[in-house]
Request: fold
Amino acid sequence: MADDIPWDQCNAKLDPAVADIVESFTAIELYLPDYNAKILPVIRSSKGRAWFYANWGYEESKHSLALGDWLLRSGHRTEKQMEELERRVFSTEWNLPEDNHLGMLVYAMVQERATWLNYRNLRQRASELGGDGALETILKHVSVDEMAHHGFFRDCVALYLKLDRTMVLEAMRSVMLDFKMPAINDLLDNNVRRLQQIYDLKIFDESAYYAEVFLPILQDLGVDRTELRRRNLGMRSVVVKP
Reply:
């Protein structure tokens, strides 16, 4: 983080809405202790997944550090404001959205691709709304990590599909038809405003989720949309719309 980010290109005049969204994403990344603490006991018997999560946690920790450093170095947040953000995050505990290891595997696969999409789109908006070489570089590096993480989880799900397609499809149905990003929807204060900013800047919404997360995952896994239909319900995505 010291050598690969052009910190001298921070833009204090960048649209404040971008900084607000960066703060929201920083908060999501700050829930890392809960993410690892809750998932490791569930998948402890799988050496590959447990070791992956250990490395995943290290990579995710750099995301929150880099985003937080940008907020400070750019002047969009003060030390006191960042301390207050951390206090609010750590005062609330994140819990697993699924109650079984397969459901969490599918959730991680979807969440990592959705996070990649959020960061990719935020990078584009930052460029359009004034430009910031430091932030755009951070988001580029973080996006690469998120897509790599998604690829690992997707490959795991593909293996499970070969073993028990019906069981995996049920897990995919449970996760993918009602997907929510962590923290933004449930845990942060003032989340309606935060969601509205993400929605207004077209960072992430139902149509983006469907076109660039939902459908590509089905295509990669060789799953037809009809296999995920809920009788008399159809798709009920509640990703970010306030």
